[in-house]
Amino acid sequence: MEAKKDWIKDLVIYQIYPRSFQDSNGDGIGDIPGIISRLDHLSDLGINAVWLSPVYRSPNDDNGYDISDYQQIMEEFGSMQDWDQLCLQCHQRGIRVIMDLVVNHSSDEHPWFEMSKSSRSNEKSDYYIWRNPKDGKEPNNWASVFGGSAWEYVPQRGQYYYHLFSKKQPDLNWASPQLREEIFSMMEWWVKKGVDGFRVDAISYLDKPLDFPDSPAPPMPDGYSPSGCLVNGRPGTHGYIREMNRRIFSPFNILTVGEVAAADTEELTRYVATGREEFDMAIPFVPPVVEINEWSPGKLREEIARSYDALKQDGWWARFFSNHDKPRQVSLYGNDQEYWEISAKMLAMLLHFLPGTPFVYQGEEIGMTNISFSSIEDYNDPDAKNTYRQMLLTGASPEEALKQAQMVSRDNARTPMQWDSTPNAGFTTGTPWLGVNPNYRHINVQSQKQDPFSIYHCYKSLIALRKTSPALSRGDLEILEVPEDTLFVLKRSCPEETLFSFHNFSEHPVKIPASLIPDTAQPLLSSYDRQGGYRGDILRPYESVIFRLPAGE
Ligand code: GLC
Ligand code: CA
To answer: In DSSP terms, which residues pair with 198 in a beta bridge?
Structure first.
């Protein structure tokens, strides 16, 4: 692969969900001074980049993914001076700063929208997507991702505007050259303030089919049909991304990660193959319900193989199991009960063994788990509330609807960071905006730091290993053939070094097929380190081991 932006290969990116990271002033809401006060934690872990979920001014209909001013900081999070301080202090520690950029839509409280909706003939009239009523109703049958119609009527204009997400997140009209200029100059302003990159939100939806045909998808219980198949990944969207790349990404040499919905590897590749001049890497978005229902270790292994083949010549991978939209990884892919610690380590060891840039989502490094609130009122996520409503519409009982909401809710990943065993996990001295997971008494940063065999120390070792291991940061990947779908045997190699790994992705012991790796391979890390490490022959439930071949072999 060409060395265009070689530095991205040495990053380990830590995602902060600011609302839930650390509160500094007792209002129960995480904030930027809170993040600054915890930078020692990030330095200790060894990461060298942070991705901040949105910190811009926002009425918080979707926790900051609805921006009302792209050049101001959300009041609850602090001031622009605080942000400058955060950026400076990160840079002093060798930590790069990646901002979340939400430009598929803005908030309906953005001044652009306030002007746009005021009449059909103002200077920002075409900054959003407006359509006349059809037979006195919405222009088509499209559903919003968060429930109900994707169209909202505005009497002043006598028209509907389109919103893929909530009605407080009107979609920006990328077909307007003036709008695009506004976005690019805003991006340039941030880059000049010192940001090192952008994670670009929901970017596969920019271009819309302007005739807005009805969606053929079966309707949701509330009567509207999902429209993803019609708005996702259109050629026009790739054109806008390339324009963004030409205008901002390339001239300023920043890191770019696109969040995209992609049906398969081929579609994903269109956003990240180097020759496409779009993004450096992509985060594929899969709705939690699909992931929960369809996930399996075998599928994961296939996906790793496919995306590796697709991009090994001219691309790069974002590696993540968690983010603010997904269930907690140890609860979803591992076992958050009996094998909590071992499976959390196994997942970390697998992810950090793969080629690409590893992402660590806050709390993952201490094995934070899903939450089950006992009432729908305790949930904040609009997606969970929509799931609940739609279930009730199908005739489900409130208990069944709650169960489904608990399972899919993005709040699983958004409960406050668990720092210590003091009340509210050390996150706040006030009332937290979202309930703290009661398991904070035993799952917290402080206790994990003290315990040399903790999940936290496993992450530290993995991150440190990557820094000194050319095979991990640059080497080729080989997925060795084994009979079991749940056993991963991987090899990473480069001229200087060869590593192997085993990952038993199940609760059952598995026999290691003979002579898979040379006898001389030395175990470096094990998910069973507390129990004395690798024993050979049979891998225990969720056992994971990383080996290195002695130099010269
Ligand atoms: C992305 C974000 C998600 C948000 C949505 C709308 O998928 O990750 O949190 O709700 O876009 O901005
Ligand atoms: Ca606060």
So the answer is: 99, 256
- Ligand number with the minimum distance to the CA of 82: 2
Burial class (CB in 10 A: 0-12, 13-18, 19+), 303: middle
Question: 372 CA distance to ligand 2 centroid (A)?
Answer: 24
Q: 41 or 263, which is more confident? A: 41
Catalytic residue from among 23, 196, 201, 336: 201
Among 259, 336, 381, 411, the active-site one is: 259
Residue 252 has pLDDT above 90, yes or no: yes
Q: What's the gap in Å between 61 CA and the centre of ligand 1?
A: 11
pLDDT digits (tens, 9 = 90+) for 492-516: 999 999 999 999 999 999 999 888 9
DSSP 400-447: HHHHHHHHH-GGGGTSPP---SSGGGGT-SS--SSPPPGGGGTS-HHH
Query: What's the rounded Cα separation, in Å, for the pair 18 and 54?
Result: 8
* Alpha-helix runs per DSSP H in 317-397: 329-332, 340-353, 382-393
pLDDT at 54: 98
> Which residue's CA is minimally distant from atom 9 of ligand 1?
325
Average pLDDT over every residue of 133-153: 97
Specify whether 201 is catalytic. Answer: yes
What's the gap in Å between 17 CA and the centre of ligand 2? Answer: 13
- 260-288 pLDDT, tens digit each: 999 899 999 999 999 999 999 999 999 99
Domains of the chain: 8-106+177-373+416-457 (3.20.20.80), 111-162 (3.90.400.10), 374-414 (no CATH), 473-548 (2.60.40.1180)
Given a contact cutoff of 8 angstroms between Cβ atoms, the answer to whether 272 and 242 are in contact is no
Contact 457, 448 (CB under 8 A): yes
Pocket of ligand 1 (CB under 6 A): 62, 65, 102, 165, 201-202, 259, 285, 324-325
Relative to beta strand 159-162, strand 255-260 is: unpaired
Cα 132 from Cα 138, distance rounded (Å): 8
- β-pairing verdict for 255-260 and 357-361: unpaired
**How many Cβ atoms sit within 10 Å of the Cβ of residue 111?**
12
Beta strands in 127-228 (DSSP E): 130-131, 151-154, 159-162, 197-200
Under 8 Å between Cβ of 225 and 141? yes
Structure tokens at 434: 């979202």
User: In this structure, how many other beta carbons lie within 10 angstroms of the beta carbon of residue 69?
Assistant: 17
